[in-house]
Design a protein that fits this description.
With 544 residues, the chain is an alpha/beta fold. It folds into three domains: 336 residues, TIM Barrel (Alpha-Beta Barrel); 36 residues, no CATH class; 83 residues, Sandwich (Immunoglobulin-like), CATH 2.60.40.1180. An eight-stranded parallel sheet has the order 11-10-9-5-2-1-15-14, with helices on one face. It has a five-stranded antiparallel sheet with strand order 16-17-18-22-20. 48% of the residues are buried. Bound molecules: 6-O-alpha-D-glucopyranosyl-D-fructose (ISL). The site of 6-O-alpha-D-glucopyranosyl-D-fructose has 14 residues, from loops.
Amino acid sequence: MEWWKKAVVYQIYPRSFMDSDGDGIGDLQGIISKLDYLKELGVDVLWLSPIYDSPNDDNGYDIRDYRKIMQEFGTMDDFDRMLDGIHERGMRLVMDLVVNHTSDEHRWFTERPDYYIWKGQPNNWRSFFSGSAWQFDETRQQYYLHLFSRKQPDLNWENEELRHEVYKMMRWWLDKGVDGFRMDVINMISKDQSFPDGIDGDGTPHFFNGPRVHEFLQEMNKNVLSDYDIVTVGEMPGAGTEDAKLYTGPGRNELNMIFTFEHMNLDQGPGGKWELQPLRLTDLKENLEKWQVELYGNGWNSLYWNNHDQPRIVSRFGNDGEYRKQSAKMLATCLHFLQGTPYIYQGEELGMTNVAFASIDEYRDIETLNMYKEKRAQGMQHENLMEAIHAKGRDNARTPMQWDASENAGFTKGNPWIPVNPNYPEINAGNREETDSVFRYYQKLIALRKEVEVITEGDFKLLFREDEEVFAYTRQTADEQLTVYCNFSATPRELPVPKGCVLIGNYPPQENQGAVQLRPYEALCFFDGNKNGGMDRGKDGENG
Ligand code: ISL
């Protein structure tokens, strides 16, 4: 079996992870100083959000030079040392590959206009970061396309020379020894060349999973990926299961897995992410079931609740007050026993929460700031916008990693580039030794994936489909079965006793009285099979 099917990935957002030199910005030496922490957690792969030279209009997702390290983050020497440190510890490194667009400060933008997309007249597509997706350029007297910020012009993938420049750059990093790529919005690289207007300015039907995207990815695979033993994951807003089978299916020679957005869009209205709507658990169950069942044997899932663009899951689908620890562990259980490769986002393993800054001035993210400006100008209320930002803003994920209870959560000796979440004295990695810490629970989940075959291999069956509070399922192979019970509510629930012994749970063990009494946000996983590992573990009571 491919190694990445048994791997657990940890995402680092370098700007907010660990600052070694006191400038308030995380850096590579900071990451090096925390490699033992990551090894202790037990993860196999580290994915770094972009660390390339960038003017930081979108925190590194606007790349000025693909072969240079961002000055604030360090040097190429630091990078080589970091890569060695990762490999010495038996871990691997995945780089972020941002090739749908570059920075407008990339030298290509002036030297190779044919690498970008120009029109005499713009269509009505809107940018993901507010306003038109087209910007008039005085020198060229034409408009260029930017699906994201004005400083992120889209690359023209129709240009073969550009494509081969990208492949060359990818090989350069792979030859340095990196172990894979997470590909930013890679399902947007092929645009409908007639550039038709979209309904209400929504261009996505004309560039999500566009006409030549599979051809381009197969070409990339043939020219680059197939020559290396690496892992690839494509970030793909607007890709459904049918698309996913084409991107990740056996024999397709494209990518190993993709990030779907479907489960992340269930708590929003038709107006998009800022239109808040409570999650219906049955919607989440139905959606994850679809991905589990459809991709079984036909592709491979990536499993995530969190990344640098998403609010913190414990605040979103859990309870970040009284039941913070319980619900953080419950959500982890629910996700980690699905089939696929799990991704942990920095701080998730501590149960870090959303933040609610009082002033818009404390926010840093271009998406949030542009949205706020645009909607205020349209007459929307400050309070309503702040409520949406508190729930959904990307800065929820980007406050500094909470290492300990010292000033600035131990992230920096200087002034952090974005304020620290004020709850750091309580929630921080310094508490990880406590027996009921979220960290220890993640450690166990990660270790179990290595020991229990059915977690990787088993099929998926949803239980109690109509239940709005309990997410329960089984995973099964010929000789092993897992049953997972997750209470997504604070209401206690009674459920039938499944086959097997308790493998792991987030509460102290309970006496079996003919039924399982699920406590608030309780997660319980039962294992039935021939493996001693599972049976013994039940007796040890890996609970808490
Ligand atoms: O976060 C989003 C909306 O809330 C998305 O529109 C997000 O921008 C989209 O998922 C693409 O994300 C990726 O590309 C962006 C970058 O800003 C994100 O950080 C990155 O993950 C442009 O490179």
